[in-house]
Amino acid sequence: MTDITLYDHKSSICSQMARLALCEKGLSFTRRQIDIMDTNEQFEPWYMALNPKAVVPTLQMGNEVVTDTIRIVHRLQQMDGPDLSGDATMASWLKDIMALHYGVLMYRKRLEADGTAPQIVARGTFLTELAAKRPDAAETLATRIEGNKRFQDLLRDPEGVQTHLDATRDLIDRMASSLVDQPYLAGDTHSLADCFATAAIARFTIHGLQGWWADTALEDYYARMKQRPSFQAAQVVDTGTERDL
Ligand SMILES: N[C@@H](CCC(=O)N[C@@H](CS)C(=O)NCC(=O)O)C(=O)O
């Protein structure tokens, strides 16, 4: 069988989703960890040749390179192994779980009195300095700089932050409701939607949001997801502090 490599980062939520899908499919793979924090390896030319947006994860199977987590897990679903396709709701769960603003959940607690987040401001400075040195990456870096500015503006806007918190809570409520009558998010069998939900709930747990699903069907569901061998094998992170992310 073709060798599978996942370029990823330990605590990245998208990487954990992809690792869960690989483990649930029972596929063996090699991890090449990309340091997206300290050395910013995602911007190295060799990595951007694989993933032009300079993000993790990236899946490589022989000469085939797949980027974007939703595309990655759909590609994995086509491989031999258990059927993770779920029911007709599966694809929309992937989209909705991916659409949450996980950065807001993290940085809303790291704001100065004036609403600035020092790490995000420093990130903006880093990206601007990198753009001056890396004309080869101009397009990606311009997009990132714009995204960083939008994120800084959002963090300065309490109503905007609240909108994203409300969206998170709404998704948690919807997940809990759908689990009242069925064991998995997209029906009677474990699917890609559960890989995404597990990584998302793990992240919400680190953010201390457990009270949002206490005594609901989601609580029992997450306990069951944690019992699956994939949870350990994929190294899903739900302990430690936000500082460890
Ligand atoms: N749409 C992309 C998003 C991937 C993404 O944002 N990855 C984050 C980690 S979860 C990343 O690589 N961040 C590096 C950076 O911001 O420079 C996907 O689904 O793969």
Quickly describe the structure.
With 245 residues, the protein is α+β, with helices and mostly antiparallel strands.
Based on secondary structure, the structural category is alpha+beta
Q: What is the radius of gyration computed over CA atoms, rounded to a whole number of angstroms?
A: 18 Å
Ends distance:
34 Å
Give the CA-based shape: globular
Instruction: Identify the CATH architecture of the largest domain.
Output: Up-down Bundle
Kindly report the average pLDDT value: 96
| Beta fraction | 5-15%
Major sheet strand order: 2-1-3-4
Task: Please describe what this structure looks like.
- Helices cover 53% and strands 7% of the residues.
- The protein has two domains: 4-77, 3-Layer(aba) Sandwich (Glutaredoxin); 90-230, Glutathione S-transferase Yfyf (Class Pi), Chain A, domain 2, CATH 1.20.1050.
- Strands 2-1-3-4 form a four-stranded mixed beta sheet, with helices on one face.
- The protein has helices at residues 13-25, 45-50, 69-77, 90-99, 102-107, 118-133, 138-155, 158-178, 192-206, 217-227, 229-233; strands spanning 4-8, 30-33, 58-61, 64-67.
- The mean pLDDT is 96.
- Helix 1 (13-25) packs antiparallel against helix 9 and helix 6 (118-133) packs antiparallel against helix 7.
- Strand 3 and strand 4 form a beta hairpin.
- The protein contains eleven helices and four strands; from the N terminus they run βαβαββααααααααα.
- The chain is α+β, with helices and mostly antiparallel strands.
- The site of glutathione (GSH) has 9 residues, from helix 1.
- Glutathione binds at residues 12-14, 36, 42, 55-56, 68-69.
